[in-house]
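Incident log, support desk, overnight shift.

02:14 A customer reports that sequence design results differ from what the structure should imply. Their input is reproduced verbatim below. On-call engineer (initials T.W.) acknowledged and began investigating.
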């Protein structure tokens, strides 16, 4: 609850505050019908709903955080250490998503629910959740490529076959208008994501560690979630080549994998019971993320400009506010 309030009721905090305010003001002169015809209509419809209710722009962040934390909390509850899961989610996932990229944060919230549907082999629900999440941020559509793997047994041959079947889907997604915009905005413009190398590096290390150290034990102790986490760890490895083309695309896609990454982190103490280096392995995620967060908060001018000082409107808007 504290993390939700911290994120939802922030006031003029976050790099994209003004950008989403502009979207809110654009929708002010539109209607539900026009909102439904725009790209990522769910987010525009949300803005229209808030306008119809007579509420101000900061309420957008409340609803965005509500969707994000609902999904994140659902996955956290399934962990043996829910508090550890949420603590580890703060330095990267929470600060950079619901406190900044609110549309993708809503997509991640829906993806968390979709991950659970995947683990429970509920194909229709998985697809429905992905499509609903895409109404807020259509980059989540790439996870439809996992549909052939939702049901059935998880074998190497099935994984290869699903990979082959995914090729037409990749081609189709690459030819969409959103893909063209992404290529123009992030690849051709040479836009860089600060810190992306470190965030993607953590994903790479996590994926490799799972494949090297945890895979066999995980299959025995957590068979229901093995397929999801195993596939997720493999996808973590594929993000690395993407960073050569665009740090922004690799970074943005990597955020979708962080819930799986955090699941791996919080299960490590239970998977490495007899390992002589258990304490080191289990402490590494906490120490690494803490150091990364400390350096970022002290050295990044973006953080200093966008996140500080932190203000909240939980008890009312500051005097002189335009909202």
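02:41 Re-run completed on a clean worker. Output:
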């Amino acid at each position: 609850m504290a993390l939700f309030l911290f994120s939802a009721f922030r006031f003029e905090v976050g790099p994209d505050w003004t950008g989403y305010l502009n979207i809110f003001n654009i929708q002010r002169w539109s209607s539900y019908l026009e909102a439904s015809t725009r790209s990522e209509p769910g987010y525009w419809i949300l803005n229209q709903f808030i306008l119809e209710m007579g509420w101000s722009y900061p309420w957008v962040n409340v609803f965005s955080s509500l969707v994000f934390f609902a999904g994140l909390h659902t996955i956290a509850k399934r962990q043996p250490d829910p508090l550890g899961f949420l603590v580890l989610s703060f330095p990267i996932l929470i600060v950079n998503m619901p406190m900044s990229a609110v549309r993708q944060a809503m997509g991640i919230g829906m993806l968390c629910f979709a991950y659970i549907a995947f683990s429970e082999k509920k194909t229709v629900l998985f697809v429905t959740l992905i499509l609903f999440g895409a109404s807020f941020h259509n980059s989540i559509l790439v996870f439809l490529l996992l549909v052939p793997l939702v049901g059935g047994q998880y074998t190497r041959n099935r994984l290869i076959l699903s990979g082959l079947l995914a090729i037409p889907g990749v081609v189709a997604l690459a030819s969409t208008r959103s893909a063209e915009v992404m290529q123009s905005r992030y690849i051709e413009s040479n836009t860089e994501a600060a810190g992306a190398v470190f965030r993607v590096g953590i994903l790479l290390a996590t994926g490799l560690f799972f494949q090297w150290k945890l895979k066999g034990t995980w299959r025995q102790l957590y068979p229901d979630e093995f397929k999801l986490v195993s596939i997720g760890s493999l996808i973590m490895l594929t993000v690395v080549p993407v960073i050569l083309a665009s740090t922004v695309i690799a970074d943005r896609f990597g955020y979708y994998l962080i819930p799986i990454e955090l699941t791996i982190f919080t299960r490590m103490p239970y998977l490495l019971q007899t390992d002589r280096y258990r304490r080191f392995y289990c402490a590494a995620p906490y120490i690494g993320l803490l150091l990364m967060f400390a350096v970022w908060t002290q050295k990044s001018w973006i953080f200093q400009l966008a996140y500080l000082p932190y203000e909240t409107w939980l008890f009312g808007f500051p005097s002189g506010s335009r909202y």
